[in-house]
Amino acid sequence: MAAFIIEGGHALSGTITPQGAKNEALQVICATLLTSQRVTISNIPNIRDVNNIIQLLRDIGVKAEPLKGSANTYAFQADSLNLAYLQSDEFVHKCAQLRGSVMMIGPLLARTGKAVITKPGGDKIGRRRLDTHFLGFEKLGAKFRHIESRQVYEISASPNESSACPCGSSFKTASSLPSNTLRGTYMLLDEASVTGTANIVMAAVMAQGTTTIYNAACEPYVQQLCHMLNRMGARISGIGSNLLHIQGVSELHGTDHRLLPDMIEVGSFIGMAAMVGDGLRIKDVSVSNLGIIPDAFRRMGIKIKVEGDDLYIPRQRHYEIQSFIDGTIMTLADAPWPGLTPDLLSVLITVATQARGSVLFHQKMFESRLFFVDKLIDMGAQIILCDPHRAVVVGHDRKIQLRGGRMSSPDIRAGIALLIAAMSANGRSRIDNIEQIDRGYEDIENRLNALGAKIRRE
Asked: What are phi and psi of 390, to 5 degrees?
């Protein structure tokens, strides 16, 4: 298990460019399964989760080759799939270690009529159900068969007898439909799940008839996926809204696609600049796709300048948390897009420890994501964990510096938040289990060391 050794108190300055978006990459890479033609994707981040999903596609027969002379660009071609591998214990084991593997279900159902799913891995941040995915596939006409001995579900688009969905409901398929087909339908999603929406969209693009998805997630990454699919020949309208209409087509073709910058990494760099920055420029951030993220930091008192498509964060000697118009304490809560992404609450909590004033954070989606604040409290932060979903931070206004310590990264986002805290702390810190950070941040220690940080991997 690798670790970071961090010498705190070193200011960051200069310019940094965000990597390609991790969450978009997992979606669009899996979308290459929908066609036998070549799909080229650029700005792919070199991180563990993305590399693992690329390898998983290779294992089932997808050609995935980096293009020479084009950094972070891959050509994918799924013209010879090994469907027998989907039934192997090795495939099931790999899926269980990678949450992103769930994004393969929709494309495989659409293209081949079959898929296999086991409980996927990923961050241990509370209950992360897949009911939205399963209910959507069920609405499209898929059936599920539980293989208890292997703890997997086989999913088939064949419209045969009644079958039970793992979320607890059941359905009957129409005998008049041809074998191995999905059928378009209307569905109201039980939650605006990003991965659920993306997965259902990928299944629906080749379903018979028209699919309408209401309460669809409308994050920029879902929009990117839909635009890419349309370039491949899909017929999706309503992109950017929570009401999508998808007219099924019989086949898709190849295309070229470029990933957006990772908005979570942009937010992480804003947090670093606030805590330990001495003038930091974040280049090519795609400002129009950041949504409310810059304003969330501004509510914390952080000064952010928009210069073209760059963000410049000057040195923050002090930053004061705003209050609401009626004078009540500021509350920051996560919400579906265009609300504040839950992936940045960990960073915002860390930034708040050195602000002037107090703020209540309300994490609504994951009941275990705030537990990392115990590590900040050990470093000297003033935080009251009210319950698994709410925490109050009383800022030090830089009068009391955090102190270094030993800690372990419980998930990707808490890991980067602890790294920010360690860079601002007095003394040396050690963060174990940094494989979690590596899942979402490319070569992070070398990129930050180039700005003035003192981080060593061991």
From this structure: -135, 140
Active site residue 123: yes
Q: Which two tokens stand for residue 398?
A: 């830089």
* CA pair distance 166, 153, nearest whole angstrom: 8
| Upstream peptide bond of 107 is cis (omega within 30 degrees of 0) | no
Whether 103 contacts 199, CB under 8 Å: yes
**pLDDT (tens digit, 9 = 90+) per residue, 48-70?**
999 999 999 999 999 999 998 88
Q: Helices 105-112 and 194-204 sit at what angle, rounded to 10 degrees?
A: 10
Strand pairing category for 390-394 and 358-362: antiparallel
Contact assessment for residue 110 and residue 206, using Cβ atoms and an 8 Å cutoff = yes
- Which residue matches tokens 């909590």? 349
Residue/partner pairs of 288-292 with CB below 8 Å, 24 or more apart: 289/220, 289/260, 289/261, 289/263, 290/263, 290/266, 291/220, 291/263, 291/337, 291/338, 291/341, 292/338, 292/339, 292/340
Average pLDDT along the chain: 90
Two structure tokens written together for 61: 């027969």
Alpha helices in 161-285 (DSSP H): 194-204, 220-231, 263-276
- Tell me what pLDDT residue 176 has: 33
- With CA atoms as reference, report the closest residue to 265 among 438, 47, 18, 44: 18
pLDDT of residue 120: 55
CB distance 191 to 223 below 8 Å: no
What would the pLDDT profile of 197-223 be if each residue is shown by its tens digit? 999 999 999 999 999 999 999 999 999
In the set 49, 123, 262, 343, the catalytic residue is 123
Of the candidates 32, 215, 217, 226, the one whose C-alpha atom is nearest the C-alpha of residue 110 is: 32
Q: How far is CA 281 from the centre of its chain?
A: 24
Between residues 28 and 156, the one the model is more confident about? 28
Q: Tell me the three state secondary structure of residue 276.
A: helix
Non-local CB neighbours of 31 within 8 Å, separated by 6+ positions = 39, 107, 202, 225, 228, 229, 232
Give the predicted TM-score (pTM) of the model.
Answer: 0.91
